[in-house]
Amino acid sequence: MVAPELTDRFLAEEAVYNYWQAIINRQYGLAECFCIYDGIWDNKIDEWEEYINIHSEDPCSFLIIYFDEFYKPTEVTGDTAVVYVRIIADKIVVPCNSNLHKKMDGSDI
């Protein structure tokens, strides 16, 4: 197996991927390591944390966020990279009296 070439495009995509994995896993401090200090996405971390917390409070729903794909080639010009990525957030609501909800609340443990 040959290691991937560490091109600017590869490094930019890896940073974006790692940022979103940290957000998805609620590792907000780690997400900061993958953005430009005080940049747009650094400042969005608090917004994502609030969004995730608000949409995770309901015991009868599940918030699923996942990294879907890079949907367009990354553009690198000088020291600037534009990475096109699709992130999907789904909130799934289940009836509170359903068997699925009873299994997820931990009461059967």
The gist of it:
This is SnoaL-like domain-containing protein. This protein is α+β, with helices and mostly antiparallel strands and 109 residues long.
Describe the protein's architecture and organization.
The protein has about 110 residues and is α+β, with helices and mostly antiparallel strands. The chain is about 40% helix and about 30% strand. The chain has 4 helices and 2 strands, in the order αααββα. The longest helix has 17 residues, at about 10-25.
Write the layout of secondary structure elements.
Blueprint: H1 8-24, H2 28-32, H3 40-56, E1 61-77, E2 80-93, H4 99-104
Antiparallel strand pairs: 1-2
Notable features of this structure?
109 residues; alpha+beta; two-stranded antiparallel ribbon
Number of DSSP E strands:
2
End-to-end separation? 44 Å
User: Order of strands side by side in the largest beta sheet?
Assistant: 1-2
Oligomer: single chain
Strand content: 25-35%
General shape = elongated
Order of helices and strands: HHHEEH
- Tell me about the biggest sheet? 2 strands, antiparallel
Low-confidence stretches: none
Mean pLDDT: 87
Count of folded domains: 1
Radius of gyration, taken over Cα atoms and rounded to an integer in Å: 18 Å
Q: How many DSSP helices?
A: 4
Q: Work out the helicity level.
A: 40-55%
Structural class determined from secondary elements: alpha+beta
Organism: marine sediment metagenome
Protein name: SnoaL-like domain-containing protein
